[in-house]
C-alpha cells in the first residue's frame, strides 16, 4: 500500500471515529434528557401557610398537575391562578428536587367593612376587597370616609388615595394589639385626624399617623377611667401629647 493510500485510510478511520463519537454523545444526551424528564416530574405538591383553606383546594387553584416537569412550572401563572381566590396570596414556589413542589401561601384576613352601593365590602388591612355581601357583618370594624359605589372582589377598594391607604393599613394592624379599646368604627375622612368609635359610645380622636403608637397608649390608659365614670358619649382627644375629654 502506497503512502497515499495509507493516508487516505487514516483519514477515513478518523472520520468514522468522529462519527461514532458524535453518535454516542447524541445517544447519551437523549438518554439523559429522557431520564431527566421522568426524574424531574412532579410527584408531590405540598402547601405551607394555610389554615382556612385545605391543601387540596390550594393545589387545585394552582393548576399544577402531577407529572408536570418541575422546571416547566410558571410561577407567575401559578400566583395569578391562586390569587383568583381573594383570601389567598402566593408568596413563593419552592422547588424540592427532584420532584416536589411547595406552595408557600399567605391567607388574607377580613379586618373591616365598607359600604358600597347598598352592599358591604369586606376588606383586609391593605384595602383589598375579599367579599361583597348584602348584610353588614357585626363582627368587623365599620370604615367610613371612603366613597365607593362599586367594590370589586379581589381589587383594592376605590376611594382611597395612597396616604389614606397607608394610614388605614397601619392603624388596623396596630389595633390588633389594642382590642381592649373595643373599636367598632373608623372614620378616615381626614387622615390627619382619624376618629375611632368604641363600643361604649365614646369616640377617640387620633392625631398624625406618625404618633399613632403614643396616641393608642394614651387611649388605652384613659378610656377605662371614662367608662368607669359612666361616660357613654363624648370624645377622648389623644391627638396631642396628652389626653383630654370633651363631653
Could you describe the 3D structure shown?
Mean pLDDT is 88; it is low at 4-9. The chain has helices at 3-39, 55-62, 75-82, 162-175, 212-228; strands at 44-48, 88-96, 100-107, 112-116, 119-123, 129-133, 141-144, 183-187, 195-198, 203-205, 235-237, 244-246. The termini are far apart. A hairpin with a 5-residue loop joins strand 5 and strand 6. The longest helix is centred in the first third of the chain and has 37 residues, at 3-39. The protein has 5 helices and 12 strands. A 9-stranded mixed β-sheet has the order 6-5-4-7-8-9-10-11-12, with helices on one face. The chain has a 3-stranded mixed β-sheet with strand order 1-3-2, covered by helices on one side.
Question: How would you sum up this structure in a few lines?
Answer:
The chain has 247 residues and is an alpha/beta fold.
Q: What are the defining features of this structure?
A:
single chain, 247 residues, alpha/beta, Ubiquitin-like (UB roll), Rossmann fold, nine-stranded mixed sheet, three-stranded mixed sheet, 24% strand
What can be said about the biggest beta sheet? Answer: 9 strands, mixed
For the record, the CATH architecture of the largest domain stands as 3-Layer(aba) Sandwich
CATH topology of the largest domain: Rossmann fold
| Global structural class | alpha/beta
Instruction: Quote the beta fraction.
Output: 15-25%
Helix content: 25-40%
Oligomeric grouping of the chains: single chain
Annotate the secondary structure layout.
Elements: H1 3-39, E1 44-48, H2 55-62, H3 75-82, E2 88-96, E3 100-107, E4 112-116, E5 119-123, E6 129-133, E7 141-144, H4 162-175, E8 183-187, E9 195-198, E10 203-205, H5 212-228, E11 235-237, E12 244-246
Parallel strand pairs: 1-3, 4-7, 7-8, 10-11
Antiparallel strand pairs: 2-3, 4-5, 5-6, 8-9, 9-10, 11-12
Amino acid at each position: 500500500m502506497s503512502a497515499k493510500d495509507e493516508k487516505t485510510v487514516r483519514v477515513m478511520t478518523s472520520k468514522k471515529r468522529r462519527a461514532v463519537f458524535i453518535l454516542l454523545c447524541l445517544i447519551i444526551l437523549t438518554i439523559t434528557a429522557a431520564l431527566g424528564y421522568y426524574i424531574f416530574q412532579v410527584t408531590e405538591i405540598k402547601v405551607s401557610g394555610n389554615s382556612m383553606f385545605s391543601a387540596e383546594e390550594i393545589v387545585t387553584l394552582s393548576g399544577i398537575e402531577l407529572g408536570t416537569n418541575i422546571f416547566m412550572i410558571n410561577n407567575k401563572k401559578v400566583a395569578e391562578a391562586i390569587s383568583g381566590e381573594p383570601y389567598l396570596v402566593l408568596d413563593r414556589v419552592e422547588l424540592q428536587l427532584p420532584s416536589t413542589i411547595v406552595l408557600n401561601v399567605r391567607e388574607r384576613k377580613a379586618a373591616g367593612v365598607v359600604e358600597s352601593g347598598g352592599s358591604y365590602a369586606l376588606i383586609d388591612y391593605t384595602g383589598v376587597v375579599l367579599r361583597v355581601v348584602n348584610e353588614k357583618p357585626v363582627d368587623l370594624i365599620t370604615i367610613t370616609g371612603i366613597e365607593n359605589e362599586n367594590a370589586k372582589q379581589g381589587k383594592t377598594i376605590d376611594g382611597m388615595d395612597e396616604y389614606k391607604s397607608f394610614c388605614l393599613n397601619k392603624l388596623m394592624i396596630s389595633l390588633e394589639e389594642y382590642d381592649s379599646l373595643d373599636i367598632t368604627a373608623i372614620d378616615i375622612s381626614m387622615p390627619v385626624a382619624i376618629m375611632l368609635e368604641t363600643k361604649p359610645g365614646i369616640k377617640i380622636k387620633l392625631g398624625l399617623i406618625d404618633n399613632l403608637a403614643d396616641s393608642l397608649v394614651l387611649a388605652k390608659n384613659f378610656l377605662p377611667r371614662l367608662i368607669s365614670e359612666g361616660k357613654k358619649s363624648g370624645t377622648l382627644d389623644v391627638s396631642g401629647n396628652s389626653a383630654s375629654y370633651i363631653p
